[in-house]
Design goal:
It is a single chain. The protein is an alpha/beta fold and 302 residues long. Helices cover 30% and strands 20% of the residues. It has eleven helices and eight strands. Helix 6 links the parallel strand 4 and strand 5. Helix 6 packs parallel to helix 9. The protein is globular and about 55 Å long. The termini are far apart. The relative contact order is 0.17. Its EC number is 2.1.1.137.
């Protein structure tokens, strides 16, 4: 099967268009495909996602079934923290993070799909949150100042980005000294078949964009992070009715018998420096109710 290898910008545009479509799909459809973007499996089969149902702060309207972990569960978010969510989608992880930060904290979601931003803002308005903001932007070049965030989270997004080292350098830039991230993502052990690796649709589906686990961890270390820890790891299996779109029967058999390991991992790492503060010592952040510059629900600013 012949495939055409796309440039980084072409891949990003493919992802942008696909996730604009996904923003209009239901969770049930997305959960039966690869991060919502690959072909739908005929099995009622949840390929990637963990169950958010029992997580405090969960909002069903904001859950499109696109994640591959529960990074907020491991993110050590404290009251008053400033949290940034990369690839925030319809806002699910932001709303879970907001439960942890409380009204005295701030949560910023960044996404480069305008329809996702619109959906997330609508969900925030319905919840009446005035300390959750959604900002349009590319996570390779975040529209965020240096040294502002206590915590960065992301859920099955970095594998969609062509320049992963650039994203980790951006995360390092926006974190305060002593800040940390918890990120769920897809990584590999072994090589994917060429038909999967070079297909843009499977790239948008979170699989073809995945890199070797050791390389992924090396990028984190090279960005300057320390205390790098894999908090959770689980294998991912791709159903045969999705594989059959890319591989013949013999190739599928070989893939299943001795193919690569595809894993969802949740990784923690920390930026050196800073002093740990209790929630009572944290500085107040902007956009809180009762302040002159507060962002009111329905105003369009959050």
């Amino acid at each position: 099967m012949e495939t055409k290898k796309k440039s980084a910008e072409e891949l990003k545009e493919t992802v942008r268009k696909k996730y604009a479509e996904i923003s209009e799909q239901g969770k049930d459809y997305n959960a039966r495909s690869c991060c919502g973007a690959g072909g739908e499996s005929t099995k009622v089969y949840n390929i990637m996602t963990d169950d958010y149902g029992e997580v405090e702060g969960y909002n069903a309207d904001a859950d499109l079934g696109l994640g591959c972990g529960l990074p907020t569960q491991f993110a050590k978010i404290k009251k008053g923290d400033y949290v940034i969510d990369l690839g925030s989608g319809a806002g699910n992880d932001c709303f879970v993070a907001r439960h942890e930060t409380g009204a005295e904290g701030k949560v910023l979601g960044i996404d480069f799909t305008e329809s996702m931003i619109a959906k997330a803002r609508k969900n925030a308005d319905k919840l009446g949150f005035n300390n959750v903001e959604f900002r349009y932007g590319d996570i390779e070049d975040m529209p965020v100042s240096d040294d502002v965030a206590d915590v960065v989270v992301s859920n099955c997004v970095l594998n969609l980005v062509p320049d992963k080292p650039k994203v980790f350098s951006e995360i390092f830039r926006v974190l305060k000294p002593g800040g940390h991230f918890s990120i769920s993502d897809i990584v590999l052990e072994g090589e994917l078949p060429e038909a999967l690796r070079e297909d843009a649709e499977m790239y948008a589906g979170c699989v073809a964009g995945a890199i070797q686990k050791e390389v992924y961890l090396d990028h984190i270390k090279e960005a300057g992070f320390e205390n790098i820890t894999i908090q959770k790891e689980k294998p991912i299996e791709i159903p045969e009715d999705i594989l059959s779109k890319y591989l013949d029967e013999d190739e599928i058999a070989g893939f299943n018998e001795g193919g690569p390991g595809i894993y969802s991992i949740t990784v923690f790492a920390q930026k050196a420096g800073g002093e740990e503060k209790s929630s009572s010592q944290k500085e107040m952040v902007t956009m809180l109710g009762g302040q002159a510059n507060a962002c009111e629900p329905g105003s369009g600013c959050c």
